[in-house]
Amino acid sequence: EVAGPDDLDGVVAGQGSRLGTGGMASKLSSALLAADAGVPVLLAAATDAGAALSDASVGTVFAPRPDRMSARRFWVRYAAEAAGALTLDAGAVRAVVKQRRSLLPAGVTAVSGRFFGGDVVELRGPDEEMVARGVVAYDAAELATMIGRSTTDLPAELRRPAVHADDLVAV
User: Does domain 74-170 correspond to CATH entry 3.30.200.20?
Assistant: First the structure.
């Protein structure tokens, strides 16, 4: 049974063959997406379908999320196209991913892409690996002027988070 993406760490999934559509990586990605949406998934070979439905030892079960993700958070995580990216320092990554805090401009080290307030952006760690996605509160040009600045150093109208915790989804 797969309870979440962490259970697949170290699993190598190949590309599709001339007989199939999509490789194991596509199947795993789809199974995780469905499980995140609250749908239980049983992944098995088509030739084992009958056995998999009657015998718990055949195939791999992907458990649905115990707490169903809201439609908005699901959209941010999976459906929305990212219009840009923010690179974060290690402290901001920890705050956003581990503590589920809002992203403040002080934790942003770089802004890339052309986006506007209300767009979805990728949040990347210092190594440029995506750690979260979220709805940004500022335009790219405006946020670029705020990089690394404490909210107390900003004018009152710019003291809100770059991405509010309610609009963040860790990946």
Answer: no
